[in-house]
């Protein structure tokens, strides 16, 4: 028997799981909701053992990289290529495009090739936002699909990267069901 402390990535609820020779990738939290869990000690990934049994191995942390306003995941990836190789060896980066095509002129036009995307739209006074809930749903889907361990962003992507932990701490329910007033 192995006892492992896990943390729910959605609500930060701590759970102690007792397992016999394998770890379970999900459990229910204090509200009965099923969540994916991460080990506090290392990032573990389930793989097939030599005799068909489950085997868990340490893997690189996965970082979701959210690009800037009216750019793209490919542009952000190009910008980060200048980072030292030692960083790229230790971390796995994911560079998705925002869910909405560019709705206006991009400041990087002529420097980087299109297409360009934006995470959400806003008015000139930054007092009204459109598609913010759809943006959060898109990011949540990416986090689940790629089993993301952290966020990094530039410009509009940095706004989201900074806001998401606060929105997450606000309540345990899914981010796209929150009232962001």
From TrEMBL:
Q: Which InterPro entries match?
A: AB_hydrolase_fold, FSH-like_dom
- Start and end of every Serine hydrolase domain? 59-171
Q: Which Gene3D superfamilies match?
A: alpha/beta hydrolase (3.40.50.1820)
Q: Which SUPFAM superfamilies match?
A: alpha/beta-Hydrolases
Q: Which PANTHER family match?
A: DIHYDROFOLATE REDUCTASE (PTHR22778:SF51), OVARIAN CANCER GENE-2 PROTEIN-RELATED (PTHR22778)
Q: What is this protein called?
A: Serine hydrolase domain-containing protein
Q: Which organism is it from?
A: Lactuca sativa (Garden lettuce)
């Amino acid at each position: 028997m192995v006892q492992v402390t896990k943390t729910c990535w959605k609500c930060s609820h701590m759970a102690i799981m007792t397992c016999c020779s394998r770890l379970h990738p999900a459990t229910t939290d204090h509200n009965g909701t099923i969540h994916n869990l991460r080990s506090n000690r290392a990032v573990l990934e389930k793989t097939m053992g030599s005799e068909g049994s489950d085997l868990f191995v340490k893997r690189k942390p996965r970082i979701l990289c959210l690009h800037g306003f009216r750019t793209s995941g490919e542009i952000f990836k190009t910008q980060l290529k200048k980072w030292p190789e030692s960083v790229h060896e230790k971390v796995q980066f994911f560079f998705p495009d925002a869910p909405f095509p560019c709705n206006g002129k991009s400041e990087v036009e002529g420097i980087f090739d299109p297409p360009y995307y934006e995470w959400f739209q806003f008015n000139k006074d930054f007092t009204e936002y459109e598609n913010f809930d759809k943006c959060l749903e898109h990011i949540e889907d990416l986090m689940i699909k790629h089993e993301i361990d952290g966020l990094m962003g530039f410009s509009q992507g940095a706004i989201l990267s900074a806001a998401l932990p606060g929105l997450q701490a606000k309540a345990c329910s899914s981010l796209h069901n929150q009232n962001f007033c």
